[in-house]
Amino acid sequence: MAATVKDIAQRAGCGVATVSSYLNGGNVRPGNREKIRQAISELHYEVNETARQLKTNRTRMIGAVIPELNSTFCASVLSEIEDILRQHGYAMLVCDCRTDSVREREAVDFLLKRRVDGLFVLPVDETGSNLRKFIRTGKPVVLIDRQIEGLDVDTVCVDNRAAIRSAVDLLVQKGHSRIGMIAGPSGINAARQRMRGYIEGCEKNGICQNRDLIFQGDDSIESGTAGIETLIKMHPDMTAVVISNYRMTMGAMIGANESGIMIPQQLSVVGFDNPQFARAVHPRLTIVNQPVDEIGERAAKIMLERLGDVDAPEGSMDGSEDCANPECGHRHIWLTTAILEGGSVLDRS
Amino acid sequence: MAATVKDIAQRAGCGVATVSSYLNGGNVRPGNREKIRQAISELHYEVNETARQLKTNRTRMIGAVIPELNSTFCASVLSEIEDILRQHGYAMLVCDCRTDSVREREAVDFLLKRRVDGLFVLPVDETGSNLRKFIRTGKPVVLIDRQIEGLDVDTVCVDNRAAIRSAVDLLVQKGHSRIGMIAGPSGINAARQRMRGYIEGCEKNGICQNRDLIFQGDDSIESGTAGIETLIKMHPDMTAVVISNYRMTMGAMIGANESGIMIPQQLSVVGFDNPQFARAVHPRLTIVNQPVDEIGERAAKIMLERLGDVDAPEGSMDGSEDCANPECGHRHIWLTTAILEGGSVLDRS
DNA sequence: TTGAAAGCGCTAACAT
DNA sequence: ATGTTAGCGCTTTCAA
Fold first, then answer.
1. pLDDT over threshold 90, residue A316
2. Tens digits of per-residue pLDDT, B106-143?
3. Residue A189: predicted pLDDT
4. Cα angle for residues B151, A43, B63 (degrees, 5° grid)
5. Backbone phi and psi for residue A140, each to the nearest 5 degrees, phi listed first
6. Does B91 contact A at CB distance below 8 Å?
7. Which of A105, A114, A223, A292 has the highest number of chain B CBs within 10 A, making it the mutation to test binding with B?
8. Is B93 in contact with A96 (Cβ distance < 8 A)?
9. How confident is the model over A187-192, as a mean pLDDT?
10. Domain residue spans in chain B?
11. b/e map of B289-327 (b: 16 or more CB within 10 Å)?
12. Can B5-55 and B160-290 be said to share one CATH topology?
């Protein structure tokens, strides 16, 4: 059996409180300090965090509920978060709910029972009903990438509307006026915002006022392929297309590849996410690039702040829009995307 | 404060043992059963897993130490594992050690303190010294993708040697004889095995006996780019190249892209991993495809079996080579890869 | 079947 | 600064 504080106390010839004090960085007389150190080393003692958790009512574990681990966006953000959390002694419990709202609810309840100290969620269900039970505990929740209206929790998002709007702007600048869009499911707020960005961009530039150039996809690779093939068949006069997420971007590239669509001569493309992928396809893809590391970092910092492990970061409101309702006391961070230019947009001007 | 079994017992008018029995599926008289059910519902009671853990000395948590979450291979395997584990009530603690052996050791110790019931490791340090302390606890360890010689633990790997050997075979079949290789770091067993597969394939087919067509990369995107550019410059007579991992494959595509190398007319390519990426580049890439889901599934099943949560799977030795030393009692699963043909290999025969 | 009570390993309050 | 002790919420004997 593993050694306990009692064993250490016995061997060091002192009380358990002294050992506990030693473990938690309290004041211990040098003599005892040395004896305890030795006992710990001899007995291969390792603190039992479980017992500590029960006593202190803190698990130093944070849950993360995400739609799919196997997505560069999620993985990159989580990897950043995990790094920061662990530096502060927190462990991360990951639950992949496979883009399924029922599994998402189960995951939240699972983490609730395990008494995680906080929760990161990249929500699938955007009504927030899966989260209410957890929120009631008063423990911090940080939403990533998707906000839920009416839910009073911290949020770190990118400005999806502006992202796609600027993609449309770029295309218009380069002389395009028949611009299509491969959009995501209207049930996802982020996808809706991107769609709005497209519409706003078109309206602002006085193009494509009817929405016939929008292909309604479902964020899957397959729908990206279907999207580009459908749009180009139905609208031979279309000269450019913007794509609403990474998977559909990948799918569109597959479609272009397999249908022999020439990029950018025949069709200009602005994709979404993953600069490495963008460099690997030919011609290099112009994309909307999300600041994944910053998203993770901001989310982690907010969590640590709520947990009292770190002070509010200086300038914590920088580059971000405040919550519409300031007295809610929660952060709503909006980060901005950038366009990374490749060679997939033809200059027709 | 959250309700406890005591509160439930009080409200239901029974003892805590009865409540505990109810919670754990024991026999409880229907009258009590109903009263307890109601009390739980009214008080929003949720079992405190932490307390349960302390008492039962099992955390129902499994650690996973990996070199990088942000890699499709790791993410896919973990996602499969996590799915299966959670169905059996286990939570997964992920630690990304960023391909750093020191961080890996810290991660293992971190998980040890938190008393995880088992550990999945995709080892960076291949001496196994980072794992010994954990192994001494007698808790199960399952190694993924990389075996460690002399370490007596379960392992789930793919046959990397055969994988690359068959890639070479394919190229020879198609009439190639000057075949290059972009290899990974010799400190990584998997990379070494792939290199051996290349050498064996060449010897078997009587080609490239001197090793001048091997570029020594480091598994990074950058080294893939450097690899393809260097090889083609130094060896204009080379007609094909095999690449040892996914990142370098991506890097090689970037290099081909940016240096204007024509695939497959000028150079045939066999890449590694990620069938979706393979479809998205032009021409569609021929790749060595690892059975990621099966790797995750086998690893998870072995873990559950060791934990006593599941019986040994029927035919658990199928499609796998046994441990050289059968009395060690540990599984060494070898899964096979397949070649997924695209259009990146020119038929010169 | 059920209640009372011990105890998992730790921290913290209290007394010294 | 340190020893003694109670108790975190649960499971699990042991009696009844």
1. no
2. 999 999 999 999 999 999 998 999 999 999 999 999 99
3. 87
4. 45
5. -70, 140
6. yes
7. A114
8. no
9. 90
10. 5-55, 59-159+292-337, 160-290
11. bbebebbbbbbbbbbbbbbeeeeeeeeeeeebeebeeee
12. no
Size of chain A, expressed as the number of residues it contains: 349
Write the CATH number of the domain with boundaries A5-55: 1.10.260.40
**B238-274: pLDDT as tens digits:** 999 999 999 999 999 999 999 999 999 999 999 999 9
Query: How would you classify residue A99: left for phi > 0, otherwise alpha for psi between -120 and 50, otherwise beta?
Result: left
Tell me, yes or no, if A276 comes closer than 8 A to chain B by beta carbon: yes
Contacts of B101 (CB under 8 A, 6+ apart): B124, B125, B130
d(CA A296, C1' D8) / Å? 34
**Tell me, which fold does domain A59-159+292-337 have in CATH?**
Rossmann fold (3.40.50)
For residues A62, A65, A66 and A72, what is the CA-based torsion angle, rounded to 10 degrees? 10
Q: Which residue has the higher pLDDT, A73 or B324?
A: A73
DSSP per residue, A182-218: EE--TTSHHHHHHHHHHHHHHHHHT---SGGGEEE--
Residues 15-54 of A, Cβ under 7 A from nucleic strand C? 16-17, 19-20, 23-24, 45, 47-48, 51-52, 54
Above 60 in pLDDT, residue A349? Answer: yes
B297 at interface of A, judged by CB pairs closer than 8 A: no
pLDDT of amino acid A313: 57
Q: What CA–CA distance (Å, rounded) separates B90 from B53?
A: 12
Put simply, whether B98 touches A (Cβ < 8 Å) is: yes
Say which CATH superfamily domain B160-290 falls into.
Response regulator (3.40.50.2300)
DSSP conformational letter for B316: T
What is the reported pTM? 0.92
User: Chain A: residue nearest B274 by CA?
Assistant: A70
Residue B340 and residue B274 in contact, taking contact as beta carbons nearer than 8 Å: no
Structure tokens at A162: 């502006």
Residue nearest to nucleotide C7 (CA to C1'): B55
Instruction: Among A54, A137, A279, select the one facing B51 at the smallest CB separation.
Output: A54
Residue B318 has pLDDT above 50, yes or no: no
H or E stretch covering B124: none
